[in-house]
Give the backbone structure.
Amino acid sequence: MKILVTRKIPEPGLRKLKNFNAQLTINQEDRNLKHEELNNLASDADAVLAMLADNIDADFLKSHPGLKIIANYAVGFNNVDIEAATNNNVVVTNTPGVLTDTTADLAWSLLMAISRRVVEADKYTRAGKFKGWAPELHFGSDIYGKTLGIIGAGRIGQATARRAAGFDMKVLYHSRSQKEDFEKETGALKVGLDNLLKESDFVSLHVPLTDETHYMIDADELRLMKNNAFLINTARGPVINEKILARALQENWIAGAALDVFEEEPKVHPQLLNLDNVILTPHIGSATDKTRNKMAEMAAESIIDVLSGQKPENVVNSNIYDK
Ligand code: NAP
Ligand code: GLV
Ligand code: GLV
């Protein structure tokens, strides 16, 4: 059996794979594989442990007939053509749950940093501009008592909402289905997208990237938001029209944005780089050692399960087992 790991993952995951009786190829470069490299290295692989930047499209799946599993090292799987995987009898797994709280923590880090202008204040202090406490220095916006709007009330959206209790916030959510337990626990109210955008002081995105959620936040939606509201994105870049967002921030349609994900990673829209009312982080939602170790173990276990003829825990295309 041959396993390809498209980029070095934390040791706990590698250890599991090394202890499994298979031929292991690990990309040793400190960068993602180019599509052609991925194609070649995976040529006779039974399993690929893939990164979210690896484009596992229909062509790739068709041209690797021996492939049995793609274990995506992420909860999001928009980089994999799921239908083509199923058609080609390839199991797709992801890493849900273990990164939920870590990612919700980052959403809050961004929310707090943008509203109190922490990054700007740090730059100001380092630049030697701090000349002593001043009555009107560097005003930000309060967080407590405000309204938080969660778009996509799944695992991470709900975990982000739960954290609002300590800030006495009102929580609104927009999702496809009603979440009664979540409502009971947090007092969150389900509203339509337009009302959420009109009423929230903080809008936090937690939907997966799909055809439906692509550009879910475009000009009309940004126009609906209050001009003192903030937009937080730890979901996927293309959920927002980034070019329009840059314009909205420049023209103060909204007060600010904090983004962990971008439309064409690793590119960032150049206009965003020059604005003070935006915080930019390099897709670090799940980036703590504990969480990345768990994700690595989970992806490795999925591969070992499939290559041992077992059904892994986190199958995305579970209908493949009904075929
Ligand atoms: P999840 O549990 O599947 O939650 C996603 C939620 O989005 C679901 O509850 C779903 O609603 C909702 N949704 C889907 N399509 C929708 C639509 N068209 N309109 C409204 N709501 C919609 O997934 P998760 O584990 O919370 O992860 C969410 C996403 O976060 C991932 O897909 C990934 O892209 C991103 N992520 C990013 C990072 C990072 O590093 N920044 C880390 C982890 C995850 P219903 O339940 O109502 O059907
Ligand atoms: C990260 O973005 C993930 O989807 O796990
Ligand atoms: C500020 O530092 C205060 O004591 O109010």
